[in-house]
Amino acid sequence: DAGVIQSPRHEVTEMGQEVTLRCKPISGHNSLFWYRQTMMRGLELLIYFNNNVPIDDSGMPEDRFSAKMPNASFSTLKIQPSEPRDSAVYFCASSLSGQGNYGYTFGSGTRLTVV
Amino acid sequence: AQSVTQLDSHVSVSEGTPVLLRCNYSSSYSPSLFWYVQHPNKGLQLLLKYTSAATLVKGINGFEAEFKKSETSFHLTKPSAHMSDAAEYFCVVSPGSGFQKLVFGTGTRLLVSP
Hints:
The structure holds two protein chains of two kinds. Chain A is mainly β. Chain A has strands spanning about 5, 10-15, 20-25, 30-40, 40-50, 55, 65-70, 75-80, 90-95, 105, 110-115. Chain B is an all-beta fold. In chain B, about 0% of the residues lie in helices and about 55% in strands. In chain B, the strands form three sheets. In chain B, strands 2, 5, 6, 10, 11 and 12 form a six-stranded mixed beta sheet that branches. The mean pLDDT of chain B is about 90. The chains are: A mainly beta, B mainly beta. The interface of A and B includes residues 43, 48, 50, 55 and 108 of A.
């Protein structure tokens, strides 16, 4: 299995532009999580899906952030418009059945820089 | 509610000496507990997990952790550090039943000197 695949690995964009991050979970996993990691705030859970349905988006910082999961093999996290404070590493993770005791498998992350 | 406390933000050891990374948890249920490792500019990798089976859990790269309910601890150890162990380590708790998200600690940075 190729694991959780995120793209792009790096993204540099100008303030005000739209940014779309992509994630392909492990085949058969039915839960997907988006995290943001910064030096100041550590790892933050933004949103998670179970069976393609958003379960908890309370971690999404503001309306500029949105996430979709149109099918079991693909999810996007969109920031529009982007701001310099959105600069961070964004991780996608997936798990089986959404049960916490399986743990998560993480992707390699997307490093976003907004200038 | 569940939470974890990683007692040290940084731990420094010499190569070949033992490693101890401390973690205490709080959970209303019988928890599942995990340790993840993150090498520089990499994603998070699962080191080991405890899910109510044996209390001493062995993971990858020679790491192990012991679940101690009486002390609400899940410390990570390794007998002999290697330079490649230098990384950030996260202790994680889950309630272990039902659909619940994992709760991450703030991380401990392990520094290994020659």
